[in-house]
TrEMBL record:
PROSITE patterns, A to Z: PROKAR_LIPOPROTEIN (PS51257)
Keywords, in A-Z order: Copper, Metal-binding, Signal
Protein name (database record): Amino acid transporter
Organism whose genome encodes this protein: Apiospora rasikravindrae
Domain Tyrosinase copper-binding span(s) in chain numbering: 73-214
């Protein structure tokens, strides 16, 4: 299994104001701020999507557009790991509620979660993007790792004055420790998105980026940088075929170099139109149009 080292390059894009047409932003809330109906509305399409995609995704001709649309129109929310870390033990975080969350800390001898809406979902995708036997959703909560996502750690990153430094910092402890705190498949470089918590974790990182941007929007809505290629070992291990990092550079729109620019093309796998980083730098852009609560 591939484990997370320092993967700043995997941070999802958060948010470049273009036309100001975003008058009715979707509201991204902390998991703890949702009522039971909102939690249910979030979890239901997730399970649906998983059950469908586990059978056909990558393997056949069935389009998952409907499911993805359902997901897309549902709210995107985040795990306020900093608040939860300060408030209570990891296992007591409401995200690990068996009824109205992603399952409790209980696992069987194989590390499979045994309760909550994802107890019986199975993944057949392997790290090399071929198919294998069905695997359950595994977790192994780790309090010591969770302590590394603390606000004090994020505060160190907030002191960064460039995006490149901020991203490198946030991609360290606040990012990596979130994966290790959940454990199980969240430690797998290629397969961690199988655990839906992955998306709440990464939306939280997007939120923290927005908090940092908001301190100096004049400069930070256009501040981009850092290498645009994952480290070589990551590519060789996680891709079906090993390709040198430079093989990807021509497709990125960064002028052929390996530095990430605002013109960088974000490939959406034909699920949504590709966008440039410039189009998603501002959470109030047409493409994102969201607000964090
Ligand atoms: C799992 O959660 C229960 C409370 O639901 C707690 O008593 C127990 O210590 C937790 N176990 C671990 C390993 O965190
Ligand atoms: C998972 O499957 C088992 C066996 O079919 C069943 O007993 C259990 O209720 C299921 N759990 C959930 C959360 O659906
Ligand atoms: C993918 O990984 C599986 C499990 O490690 C292995 O059995 C299989 O041969 C690999 N397939 C390819 C094409 O590398
Ligand atoms: C980026 O490109 C420069 C110049 O070609 C090269 O020296 C450097 O090793 C590259 N860095 C990465 C991380 O690929
Ligand atoms: C999206 O980006 C990928 C990668 O650069 C490219 O292959 C694809 O043709 C693009 N799709 C569209 C519709 O432009």
């Amino acid at each position: 299994m591939l484990k997370f080292a320092s993967l700043a390059s995997l941070l999802l894009p958060a948010a470049h104001s273009v036309s100001g047409a975003c008058s009715n932003p979707s509201v991204r809330k902390a998991w703890t701020a949702l009522n039971d109906d909102e939690k249910h509305d979030f979890l239901k399409p997730e399970v649906c999507l998983m059950e469908t995609s586990s059978k056909t995704r990558y393997a056949g001709s069935v389009s998952h557009w409907d499911e993805l649309q359902a997901l897309h129109t549902a709210q995107v929310h985040y795990w306020d790991e900093q608040a939860d870390q300060a408030a209570a033990p990891l296992y007591a975080s409401s995200i690990f509620n068996a009824e109205m969350g992603f399952g409790s800390n209980k696992t069987d001898a194989n590390g499979c979660i045994v309760d909550g809406p994802f107890a019986n979902v199975t993944n057949t995708l392997l790290s090399n993007f071929t198919r294998g036997p069905p695997q359950c959703l595994t977790r192994a909560l780790d309090q010591a790792q969770f302590n590394l996502v603390a606000q004090a750690k994020v505060g160190l990153c907030d002191a960064s004055t460039t995006y490149e430094d901020f991203n490198a910092c946030l991609g360290g402890d606040p990012h990596v420790a979130g994966h290790y705190a959940v454990g199980g498949i969240m430690l797998d470089l290629a397969l961690s998105p199988f655990d839906t918590i992955f998306f709440l974790h990464h939306t939280n990182l997007d939120r923290l980026w927005w908090v940092w941007q908001s301190r100096d929007l004049g400069a930070r809505l256009t501040d981009m940088g850092g290498v645009n290629v994952a480290s070589f070992s990551v590519l060789t291990q996680a891709q079906p075929k090993s390709l040198p990092a430079g093989a990807f550079v021509p497709y990125f729109g960064d002028g052929g170099g390996n530095v990430t620019t605002l013109n960088h093309n974000l490939w959406m796998a034909d699920i949504l139109p590709n966008v440039t980083i410039a189009e998603v730098m501002d959470i109030h852009s047409d493409v994102i149009c969201a607000e964090y609560l």
